[in-house]
Design brief:
It is a peripheral membrane protein. This is Methionine ABC transporter ATP-binding protein. Keywords: ATP-binding, Cell membrane, Membrane, Nucleotide-binding, Transport. The strands form two sheets. An eight-stranded mixed β-sheet has the order 7-8-9-3-10-11-13-12, with helices on both faces. The protein has twelve helices and 13 strands. By secondary structure, the protein is of the alpha/beta class. Helix content is about 30%, strand content about 25%. The chain has two domains: about 5-90 and about 170-325, Rossmann fold (3-Layer(aba) Sandwich); about 105-170, no CATH class. Bound molecules: iron/sulfur cluster (SF4) and magnesium ion. Iron/sulfur cluster binds next to loops.
Length: about 325
């Protein structure tokens, strides 16, 4: 495995009224090149903070610490602000949900894309323009040579998201982080964008970290997944293994709340309660107030994240019983 991203013991805290509030706690994460890793969890679980911390964009006042944080052969942990700035876009890219606000409304798509090649690769105007058109074709924009002089507002939401992906892959980064890239789009377009990310990971031999609250969107495309709850990874492993046989009750509950085609009528399962405020995380296992499998031990002792025989990691006192419940 050639890692694009390797994270060990990442923690991020934010000062709120003089108190340090932990948003991410000792997170381990691997994104190999050529693979798509889904980082899953409800909103507020620490997924986006993890992504921003990796990019060196944790924000004002954030305290980031990690035992290891590497992008390929680069130690991000000790990198200067300047180095991080140079790496962003060139070797690691971030795609966000809102394509319209990420694109410059007064520049044509061709100019915005071409600028990347001119600035970073010293390409001539003509070369930059033809590379921009190639790139638009690569992300599935029909008739790119005709669309290159159009402005962002002349494209649909799905096409704008493709353009944003084009900008993110222009310099062939080894890591692409996509934070809820499809949330604003309808279901059919969502699937197309995920397919695109899936094929780009292979074509460009790039690691993709896909951040989402929606398990339905990852099941087809993810190679591996990591599930976060209250700032920690609670289960991680091969996507097929985890999705076919979850070993953590939270993963189990996320799976039960995915709408299925074969699901006729009846209300969809929703996980009771809501994720904890990072300033007031419950004692013991942070999921215990919402867990359908909780026992007495769960409210007092926090389960460690441990490796299992089938190659995943899980943090639950009852993971073996959960696994058993899904074997047949
Ligand atoms: Fe549920 Fe207990 Fe497992 Fe936490 S440790 S997920 S409360 S069974
Ligand atoms: Mg988020």
């Amino acid at each position: 495995v050639r890692p694009a991203l390797r994270v060990r013991g990442l923690s991020v805290t934010f000062p709120v009224s003089g108190v340090d509030i932990p948003a991410v706690r000792h997170v381990d994460l691997d994104v190999p090149r050529g693979e798509l890793v889904a980082l899953l969890g409800e909103s507020g679980s620490g997924k986006s903070v993890t992504a921003r911390a990796v990019m060196g964009l944790a924000g004002e006042g954030a305290q980031v610490s990690a035992d290891e944080l590497t992008l390929g052969d680069v130690d991000l942990n000790s990198a200067s602000a300047r180095t991080l700035r140079e790496l962003r876009g060139a070797r690691m890219s971030l795609v966000l949900q809102d394509a319209l606000s990420a694109l410059n409304p007064v520049l044509t798509i061709g100019d915005q894309l071409g600028e990347l090649f001119r600035i970073h690769q010293g390409a001539s105007k003509k070369v930059a323009r033809s590379r921009a058109a190639d790139l638009l074709g690569q992300v599935g924009i029909p008739a790119p040579a005709k669309r290159i002089d159009d402005y962002p507002h002349q494209f649909s939401g799905g096409m704008r998201q493709r353009i944003l992906i084009a900008m993110a892959i222009a310099l062939e980064p080894e890591l692409l982080i996509a934070d809820e890239p499809t949330t604003a789009l309808d279901v059919t377009v969502q699937a197309q964008i995920l397919d695109l990310l899936g094929s780009l990971r292979t074509q460009l031999d790039m690691g993709v970290l896909l951040i989402t609250h929606d398990l339905a969107v990852v099941s087809e495309v993810a190679d591996r997944l990591a599930v976060m709850y209250a700032g920690r990874v609670v289960e991680a492993g091969d996507a097929d293994t985890v999705l076919s046989r979850p070993s953590h009750p939270y993963t189990e509950a996320l799976l039960r709340s995915v709408p299925r085609i074969e699901h006729h009528g009846g209300d969809l399962f929703t996980i009771p309660g809501s994720p904890p405020n990072p300033a007031r995380v419950p004692s013991g296992c942070p999921f215990h107030p919402r867990c359908h499998r909780a026992i007495d031990l769960c409210s007092s002792v926090r389960p460690e994240l441990l490796a299992t025989a089938d190659g995943r990691t899980v943090a639950c006192h009852r993971s073996e019983e959960v696994l058993d419940a899904h074997s047949r």
